[in-house]
Amino acid sequence: MASVLASAHPQETVYGQVGDATVPLRFSSLDEEYKVLRERAAVLDLGGHGLIEITGPDAVAFAQRVLARDVEYLTSDRCMMTLLLDADGQVVDQVLAFGREDGILLESSCGAGARLLAHLRANNDEGVEIADRSGDLTVLGLEGPYAWGVVGRLIDGELASLPFESVVDTTWNGADIVFARTGFTGEYGYQMIVPIEHAADLWRQSLEHAQAAGQEALELAMLEVRQPIPRHEVTEGATVVEIGANWLVDVTKDEFVGREAVLAAFEAGGGRRTVGFSGGDGVPAPGTRVWVNGQDIGEVVHAVHSVGLGATLGLARVDHDLAAAGLELTVGGTEVTTLTSPYIVPKSWSIPII
Questions:
Q1: How far is CA 155 from CA 5, 47, 120, 320, in A?
Q2: pLDDT per residue over 215-234, tens digit each?
Q3: Backbone phi, then psi, for 221, in 5-degree steps?
Q4: I need a labelling partner for 74 at 20 to 30 A (CA). Which of 14, 27, 227, 299 fits?
């Protein structure tokens, strides 16, 4: 699935395949786009996120069964992040669920729209209507410590101060859009779900007040605040607890797909946990072994060079009793130190919306 905004991107844009989507990895340089995200305001092409609408008399009951958090009372002015699991408790996807008057709208993680759609259809015991809206809607994001100012200049200043996970149906240049206060990076964040025919115009107008940032800068900023990135962190056999995504699951719900497996993982204890680390020479590949005192205790899950830290930043899945901050471990023959999150403190945490 190619970006519907490709024709509006600069010629030097570098693209990459993420799951079922071809997405802009960077428009200029990672360093520049990262600094825009952390210091000013960035506009994001989130067209790699699939949009799937669930409607019908049993739409909410169906969503309540397949989503791992409670959405029974998710109204049309709210959204929430949650997981979809299979019967074995394995993560299918991490989604944003939007309450709608006639059902639920789900936004997939990047490149996971087709997998999410297939999972929903395979579990549709209620006979609800499941429609892929990615052919007529797309998603644009605004993130950064001054993203709120862009919202004011672009649409309406009052929208900038919405509470987190609030949703408003509004218009832009005569087009109906869904506007949400969300965010992936710890900075002020907003999303706009827009009809495809108006997306390029909104993108160009956004660029009058912000700078474009690609998937590489976005995922680095997400990692720095320990925002889960499913495509990097979901590995075969890893439980929700081992991944560290248990905050996206509500085990007090009476029923959801995968609940018994999640409960078993909670009750079993032990196993491995995911912890951040920094340091070392170079960026270790996923699967690189992690050692302490000559003992193999786990493996690297994901690692990159952090522009903000000026060093390697990564996640390792290690024995649960060693998933703590301040430990010296060996990765790929070099020493690293485990960290507590967030690994970078977002500037937005100290800047009020004016």
A1: 20, 20, 34, 47
A2: 999 999 999 999 999 999 99
A3: -65, -35
A4: 227
